[in-house]
Design goal:
GO terms for molecular function: lactoylglutathione lyase activity; metal ion binding. The chain is α/β, with parallel strands linked by helices. It is built from two helices and eight strands. It folds into two domains: about 1-60, 2,3-Dihydroxybiphenyl 1,2-Dioxygenase, domain 1 (Roll), CATH 3.10.180.10; about 70-148, 2,3-Dihydroxybiphenyl 1,2-Dioxygenase, domain 1, CATH 3.10.180. It has helices spanning about 15-25, 80-95, and strands at about 10-15, 30-35, 40-45, 50-55, 75, 105, 110-115, 125-130. The chain is globular, with a radius of gyration of 16 Å.
Length: about 150
Amino acid sequence: MTTLTTGHVGLNVTDLGRSGDFYRRVLGLETLGESADAERRYAFLGLDGKLLITLWQQSDGRFATALPGLHHLAFQVPDIEDVRRAEATLRELGATLVHDGVVAHSEGAQSGGVFFEDPDGIRLEIYAPTGAGDSPAPARSAPTCGFF
């Protein structure tokens, strides 16, 4: 392989409508395709026609953080103001925030973001590479994104 990039991320969800609304509002995604067939409910979400996330309604319960698999899914945005706008939307939606707002990735780091859960408890992060230098770092000895 000479080039490798992530194509899209597929997530199992319990309620396609609820999750689709959440990801569209928080990340500003558009629906690129979907199926309301009772046996095969899914949605393809993306930006500018590029597929980023697929949602599959085929789960029960909540995301199990204690089992092997996905730790968290992170989205990079251009600047810290985009992170703050996402944080405002998350608060408006009543989403579970892991820390109290924007935090640095580590003590002294310029990068940072907001850490939260989707409606099924899947751990997510929206971060910017710079601008979080004045924000607190929840864990001095470890990366913030590794232990939440």
